[in-house]
């Protein structure tokens, strides 16, 4: 028996043009980068003109919805882990945030507190003017796709019943236009929160020294 790891066949380094992940060794700060990647992939798939015209292409809509959902989950977790959690007390631990699995609504109360703490009185999009509007969108998403299963599998894992209602019909482009607005707001929050948290920490240190 040998403990040697076999040479890779898939994840192989080339002399040039390699992809590098976790390059700065701070993975907890990368949730919104991952979210942006899934979001960009979803938008690329929407370039397919046959997406809502040919029956077989409808299955591609499952991938689009899944990518948007995962991007949403990553942005919500990125807000709490990437700076927002430092602004609220009690602060959910990064471990608890990650272990929320695929629950979106479980994260919403904490994210709402971050928005309130930052003075963001509106959610900031036409589709979701208030945080209550945003909450309604997330709750509908989670009702339709609990645990991020309904658009990844045609059946439920528990009993193999259909994951979606018969003839489940919707406009994937209307869905995407709303989600683009939502994710744009969340992405902006992820970008802003580290600086807000750093400024808050610096102010607290300066105030402590002054006293």
Strand residues, percent: under 5%
Which sequence of SSEs, written as H and E, runs from N to C?
HHHHHH
- The parts where pLDDT drops under 50 for at least 5 residues are none
CA-atom Rg in angstroms: 20 Å
**Based on helices, strands and strand pairing, what is the structural class?**
mainly alpha
The strand count comes to: 0
Please give the count of helices: 6
Question: Roughly what percent helix?
Answer: 40-55%
Globular, elongated, flat, extended or rod-shaped: what is the shape?
globular
Fold and architecture overview:
The protein is mostly helical. It has one domain (27-210). Helices cover 51% and strands 0% of the residues. It contains six helices and no strands. The mean pLDDT is 91.
Topology:
Blueprint: H1 31-45, H2 58-81, H3 94-98, H4 108-117, H5 131-144, H6 172-210
Helix pairs in contact: 1-2, 1-6, 2-6
Any key phrases for this structure?
211 residues, mainly alpha, 51% helix
In short:
Helices cover 51% and strands 0% of the residues. With 211 residues, it is mainly α.
